[in-house]
Design brief:
This protein is α+β, with helices and mostly antiparallel strands and about 575 residues long. The strands form 8 sheets. It has a 4-stranded antiparallel β-sheet. It has a 4-stranded antiparallel β-sheet with strand order 4-5-6-7, with no helix packed on it.
Length: about 575
């Protein structure tokens, strides 16, 4: 180790040190024969330096190769290499001298090479200039005032001597063509031609008759005089009815003798005691609709055979048969003020009958089959819902169509009139319930919540509750004051075909379903009160008597079933006796 350390020291030391200490070297060489142990001690302290020398030696060894590459950097002069132009751009020089030559433009050869442009660069520059001109043209065109009326655009194109239309050209394309034409004329300085065309247009417009300028296109369909009279009459009727309803509600609230909870409990007790009282075969084909008269003495049913029948109540004995429809009957309803009844059919017509079975009037106008129908509380108007996505209002006395109302995106299936007569609710296969104001014709509410088609709606006599049921197996109770759903009843295990409030006070709600059951719900908290089971097929429709004492249901099993609570009272009286 000592010998290795000494070798680099001796090589790195300059030769002058050896000359100055020549006497020492000679002395050592002379003494080297005998006093070897005596020379080692002075070498040992000298050996202390090697720990420092190896640390210094690598530092000297690493930079020693670096200077050789640094030295040629200034010497490496590609001075003879002139800057060469490539694609219209000048290459960067590697030295300051090249940069100075490029800036000063020394020599004719250098100057010619600096401004020499290749063919590709020329094509690129022309393309850029063309794009820039097009951009400026578009900016100028965007700042021009171009008429928006297509007829005015055609007139101006004609004034400018251009074709007014091209093959397959649309209104916006024609307007853009006029805009670019005007911008090009403006850029070429042909302002006189533009001004002349503009002056000709102004002169033609001023010469046009004033009648054409006053043309106004209404955004609504103008109604007839009969519709206006009907709306006035409906408004007067609804004001009286709503005043009576509010007066009755205030009396129940303020009169200490009125016990509303006791009345509700009694009505729910009656509904809870409903039992099957009678069952009768209604037709050879499945039954589709039923309705009770306002006095509860007659029942009307309709079937897929297109025949409607009138039955006496409560014995359920056939009184008359109504024949006239050419397709299946879809609904039947009694008038709330008389013994007239109306039927709807898939033959796109509705018909008005008397209780003896005579046809009085036919309502024609729908473009597709009818679904549900309903009488206005005044008994003077009839509403029909159809699969042609509209519902219509008819005058019962004259048979005139007063209103054709669109609004649903799919078929309209059911409708119900408010007990005051001011509103009507419609439901359809678009899973939407709409509330319309008959006095103004406006849609005032669109109730969204059902996820499948809605098949039945019914207003409560309290004036602010609306029930709807559909194919999502749920019955929703909408609060018209809050404009939202207040209760969601998972009512049945299959779709709900019909919903009806008890017509006198609305103390309970009845629902019919394809799960072969009908159910009664409390209107106080909408809890189940009674389940009416007995049909062998899906229940298509139901109706509640005016006094709430019995409910009728019709089914696909062709039977009419009467559910009554009076027989229970008779049995209780007999037990008491």
């Amino acid at each position: 180790m000592d010998a290795e350390d000494e070798v680099p020291v001796s090589t790195s030391e300059p030769s002058t040190l050896v000359d100055d200490n020549s006497t020492v070297v000679n002395a050592i060489g002379a003494v080297n024969l005998q006093p070897v142990p005596a020379v080692i001690p002075p070498v040992v302290p000298m050996v202390i330096l090697p720990p420092v020398v190896p640390a210094i030696a690598p530092r000297l060894a690493v930079p020693t190769p670096i200077p050789p590459p640094l030295a040629p950097l200034p010497v490496r002069p590609p001075v003879l290499r002139p800057p060469v132009a490539q694609n219209g751009e000048m290459q960067e020089s590697d030295s300051d001298s090249d940069l100075e030559e490029m800036v000063s433009g020394r020599g004719a050869a250098g100057s010619t090479q600096e401004y020499e442009i290749s063919e590709e660069s020329r094509i690129v520059r022309e393309r850029q200039e063309k794009a820039l001109q097009e951009l400026l043209m578009k900016r100028r065109a965007a700042a021009l005032a171009v008429p928006t009326n297509d007829m005015a655009v055609r007139v101006r194109l004609r004034r400018l001597g251009e074709p007014i239309t091209l093959f397959g050209e649309r209104e916006m394309e024609r307007r853009d063509r006029l805009r670019m034409l005007m911008a090009r004329l403006d850029a070429e300085g042909q302002l006189e031609k533009l001004m002349k065309a503009h002056e000709d247009e102004e002169a033609a417009a001023s010469a046009a008759p004033a009648e054409e300028e006053d043309i106004q296109y209404p955004f609504y369909t103008e109604g007839s005089k009969a519709l206006l009279d009907a709306r006035v009459e409906i408004a007067k009727y609804s004001l009286v009815k709503s005043a009576l309803r509010l007066h009755r509600a205030r009396r129940k609230r303020d009169d200490p003798d009125e016990d509303v909870d006791a009345e509700v409990d009694w009505a729910l007790k009656q509904a809870g005691s409903l039992a099957l009282d009678c069952s009768e075969i209604g037709d050879d084909r499945p039954l589709f609709g039923c309705s009770l008269s306002h006095d509860g003495k007659m029942l009307a049913t309709c079937s897929l055979s297109g025949i409607a029948k009138i039955w006496s109540m409560p014995q359920v004995q056939k009184v008359s048969t109504l024949k006239g429809h050419t397709e299946r009957a879809t609904d039947v309803v009694f008038s709330p003020t008389s013994n007239y009844l109306a039927t709807a059919s898939a033959d796109k017509t509705a018909r008005l009958w008397n209780s003896e079975g005579s046809l009085l009037r036919t309502f024609e106008g729908h473009l597709d089959r009818l679904a549900r129908i309903a009488f206005h509380p005044s008994g003077k108007y009839l509403g029909t819902a159809s699969f042609d996505k509209t519902w219509r209002l008819w005058n019962v006395e004259s048979g005139e169509e007063l209103l054709l109302q669109e609004g649903h995106s799919r078929s309209v299936y059911g409708l119900s009139f408010h007990h005051d007569g001011s509103l009507v609710a419609t439901c359809g296969l678009d899973a939407l319930v709409r509330v319309w104001d008959l006095r103004t014709g406006r849609s005032i509410l669109a109730l969204e919540g059902h996820v499948k088609p809605v098949l039945g709606v019914s207003f409560s006599p309290n004036g602010y509750h609306l029930a709807s049921g559909g194919e999502d197996n749920t019955c929703r109770i909408w609060d018209l004051r809050k404009r939202r759903s207040s209760y969601i009843i998972p009512a049945h295990s299959n779709l709900i075909s019909q919903v009806k409030f008890e017509p006198q006070e609305g103390y309970f709600l009845a629902t019919a379903s394809y799960d072969m059951t009908a159910k009664v719900w409390s209107s106080r908290d909408f809890k189940p009160v009674k389940t009416l089971s007995g049909h062998e097929a899906k229940i298509m429709s139901l109706d509640v008597a005016a006094d709430g004492q019995f409910i009728t249901t019709v089914s696909y099993d062709r039977t009419i079933k009467l559910w009554s609570s009076k027989n229970i009272e008779k049995e209780e009286k007999m037990d008491m006796d």
